[in-house]
């Protein structure tokens, strides 16, 4: 059950770039961030009224990095980069988690973990073929956003709580509140949503954010940051397979090879993790 819930995260987050590109392209990135975070946080707090499960200093740190800054960077990348490039840069998450653990905790990455992270990244590159003129601002936003997610996943694993739903709710609510004044300063009043915009926002708030962030927070706590960072490699797989199933898009042999490498990297991760340590 824990693995199934964990895999709901890439299944839902894999739709982010498509939803933004199709439904929300005319909305400022900072307002999309507000519209995604704040309503989702309010919804979860209505479902689960609870006090902050962490000290306020820790709660604000997670909210700022994982929601306020991350959402803005995510949507800047979505506006300025092709989905193939943004997805490939996001696939550096497992490597960033290993790097931060090495720097902050002195845990030198095992060659097996490092190799599987690289294998998964190669799989994503084969799948997405990120050949495009790179926008430097978009690239910087995608990489910095990925680094912030790596950092907050480590914080969540270091500051455990039994109330993962409360943790998801408060980080979304606080992150949205923090973003609100900056949205007015940077982008002015938001335009009135159109019926098309409402469709995108509804999916983004309810499924892509409220439910998916509970799944992510729970899974980082129970499975660990490295395991969840590897599972996140399914984000682009989801996006590509959705096009294959619903839009009749054809996949090349190279793309199928990339999907196989991603599956292989995660299967090997589970196999290596399951092996008992040698005495």
List keywords for this structure.
single chain, 13 helices, globular, 279 residues, mainly alpha, 79% helix
Protein architecture, described:
- With 279 residues, the protein is mainly α.
- 79% of the residues lie in helices and 0% in strands.
- The chain is built from 13 helices and no strands.
- α1 packs across α12 and α3 crosses α4.
- It is globular, with a radius of gyration of 18 Å.
- The mean pLDDT is 87.
Counting H and I runs of at least 4 residues, what is the number of helices?
13
Task: List unreliable stretches of 5+ residues.
Answer: none
The whole-number mean of residue pLDDT values reads 87
Question: How far is the first residue's CA from the last residue's CA?
Answer: 31 Å
Radius of gyration: 18 Å
Q: Please, what is the oligomeric state?
A: single chain
Following the backbone from N to C, one meets helices and strands in this order, namely HHHHHHHHHHHHH
């Amino acid at each position: 059950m824990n693995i199934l819930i964990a895999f709901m995260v890439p299944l839902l987050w894999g739709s982010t770039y498509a939803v933004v590109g199709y439904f929300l392209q005319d909305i400022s990135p900072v307002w999309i961030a507000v519209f995604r975070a704040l309503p989702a946080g309010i919804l979860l707090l209505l479902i689960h009224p609870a006090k902050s499960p962490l000290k306020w200093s820790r709660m604000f740190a997670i909210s700022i990095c994982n929601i306020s800054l991350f959402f803005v960077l995510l949507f800047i990348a979505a506006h300025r980069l092709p989905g193939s490039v943004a997805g490939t840069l996001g696939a550096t998450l497992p490597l960033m988690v290993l790097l931060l653990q090495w720097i902050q905790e002195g845990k030198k990455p095992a060659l097996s973990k490092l190799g599987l992270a690289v294998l998964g990244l190669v799989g994503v590159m084969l799948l997405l073929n990120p050949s495009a003129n790179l926008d430097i601002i978009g690239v910087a936003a995608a990489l910095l956003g990925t680094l912030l997610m790596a950092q907050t996943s480590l914080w969540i694993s270091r500051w455990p709580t039994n109330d993962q739903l409360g943790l998801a709710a408060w980080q979304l609510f606080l992150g949205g509140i923090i973003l609100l004044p900056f949205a007015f300063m940077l982008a002015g009043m938001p335009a009135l949503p159109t019926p098309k915009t409402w469709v995108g926002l509804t999916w983004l708030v309810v499924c892509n954010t409220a439910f998916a962030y509970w799944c992510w927070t729970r899974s980082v706590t129970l499975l660990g940051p490295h395991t969840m960072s590897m599972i996140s490699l399914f984000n682009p797989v989801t996006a590509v397979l959705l096009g294959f199933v619903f839009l009749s898009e054809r996949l090349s042999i190279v793309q199928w090879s990339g999907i196989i490498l991603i599956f292989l990297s995660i299967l090997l991760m589970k196999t290596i993790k399951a092996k008992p340590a040698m005495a």
